[in-house]
Amino acid sequence: MDIDEIETPYLSEEVHLAKITPLRVIWAMFKLTSWQNFAHHPTCSVYKNHYFNLGRIKLCVGCTSLYSMLGGFLIAFFSAYDFFLNNAIILPIVYCAGIIALGLHLLLHPKNKWFKALFRGILGLAIGAYISIIVLGPTWWIRLILGLLIPVELVLFTIVRGKRANLELCETCPLHIAEPPCDPMKNTEIKAAKINQMIDSQIDNLKKYTAESKKKKEEELEVSSEKEIEENSEE
Prior knowledge:
The chain is mainly alpha-helical. It is 67% helix and 3% strand. The chain has 7 helices and 2 strands. Strand 1 and strand 2 form a beta hairpin. The longest helix has 51 residues, at 184-234. The protein starts with 21 loop residues before the first helix and ends with a helix.
């Protein structure tokens, strides 16, 4: 991909706030850091297949697909508990399908967001099935063992996926070695620091204004007191 074709918000360090108010500052900070909290990937054109666009909010394809399917499966399970109890074989089948989907995802590395959503969605169903298996476990110790395996599985998934998976495309992006280089994390930190500086400046100005107003009021009271004393002495 050519540099000219890349659309990114991380080259400019400018921060624009028409007016510094609590709500405007909160909204500015939310927009600035939302890619870390919701998109989980930089919201530039390089990562366009890694997030969904919902107006100004961008959501991670993987997490959105996984958690929505996980939540949907658990709702279905508890809503039709007797059905799953009588057809429990469905649960390990769904779980195995999720493991296969995870393997295919790691093997194929699909670029299209909808294929990514499909594989992660199936994985979400598998996690829901695993939790359902725990609920239906015949004895408490089986449920305990299966429950203790969840953190282990999460750690293994994190290791396989890699710590910098959400920023891996930055390493091969032309803007990464451009001048100035595109660094989403650093750019976000700089902008957040500038917003904090604006807030500090506003607070300092407010303190200064309060101190000046207090001093002016004290001077006015002093002058008024002196006039009153002069008037009383003349009488």
